[in-house]
């Protein structure tokens, strides 16, 4: 089984520091929009793909979910998730956790989920149609899928300068040189190498449609829509960092 980059000690430590920042993109942008797209979770069975430390699982239980299931490749993430969840809920009854990549979703025991979510993770998936088929197979009739991922405008980057800047070194345009070139991208964060995958907006939406999903809502948050966002995100006036999709299985 492939190893998670989040199980590298320095990477996990830096990630935890980032998530604890109250003005991080996760706290200010991702979580509020993600939670706003959720249906009523009362009495529902919910699966979170790439659940990380279980922050979303905790919120789902607080919102009345009957049972939550988390799946993540990182053992360190799941250790933290189990510690936090066990402080308030019972393992096996209220929540279950699986250390597996999303691509092996079909191997988990549970099925018939009312809601399936994934936060900031689908850009790590190479074969998106295959994952969608496995997601669909785990859903009940009229279930809801809600996910966020890096926006295709962001994932398209391959090399060179990301930004065109003016004489004052101000960002004036985000470069889209490789937008139409789908496929693997080599990335680096905290001096750790990893891979993501670029798909155009059309490919993402068509993959969903072809797998039998009905698209209910799309969100592409940008700074002009959220003037209260911190100056740290001022570049978002040029492009959305994240894509949010809410869909139901037809």
TrEMBL record:
Record domain Methyltransferase: where: 46-136
GO biological process, any: methylation
SUPFAM superfamilies, alphabetized: S-adenosyl-L-methionine-dependent methyltransferases (SSF53335)
Residues spanning the membrane: none
UniProt keywords, alphabetically: Methyltransferase, Transferase
Record carries keyword Protein transport: no
InterPro entries reported in the protein's UniProt record: Methyltransf_25, SAM-dependent_MTases_sf
Gene Ontology MF annotations: methyltransferase activity
The protein's name: Class I SAM-dependent methyltransferase
Lineage, highest ranks first: Bacteria, Pseudomonadati, Pseudomonadota, Gammaproteobacteria, Pasteurellales
């Amino acid at each position: 089984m492939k190893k998670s980059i989040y199980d590298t000690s320095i990477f996990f430590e830096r990630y935890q520091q980032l998530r604890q920042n109250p003005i991080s993109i996760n706290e200010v942008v991702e979580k509020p929009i993600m939670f706003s797209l959720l249906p009523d979770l009362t009495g529902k069975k919910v699966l979170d793909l790439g659940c990380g430390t279980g922050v979303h699982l905790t919120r789902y239980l607080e919102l009345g979910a009957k049972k939550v299931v988390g799946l993540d490749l990182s053992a360190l993430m799941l250790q933290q998730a189990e510690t936090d969840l066990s402080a308030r809920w019972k393992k096996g009854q209220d929540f279950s956790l699986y250390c597996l990549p999303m691509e092996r979703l079909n191997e988990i025991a549970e099925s018939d989920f009312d809601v399936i979510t994934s936060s900031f993770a689908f850009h790590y998936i190479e074969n998106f149609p295959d994952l969608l088929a496995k997601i669909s197979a785990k859903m009940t009739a009229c279930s809801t899928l809600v996910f966020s991922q890096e926006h295709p405008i962001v994932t398209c980057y391959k090399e060179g300068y990301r930004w065109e800047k003016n004489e004052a070194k101000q960002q004036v345009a985000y470069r889209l040189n490789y937008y139409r070139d789908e496929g693997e991208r080599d990335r680096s964060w905290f001096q750790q190498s990893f891979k993501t995958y670029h798909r155009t907006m059309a490919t993402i939406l068509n993959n969903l449609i072809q797998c039998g999903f009905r698209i209910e809502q799309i969100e592409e948050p940008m700074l002009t829509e959220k003037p209260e966002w911190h100056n740290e995100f001022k570049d978002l006036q040029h492009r959305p960092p994240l894509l949010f999709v809410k869909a139901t299985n037809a």
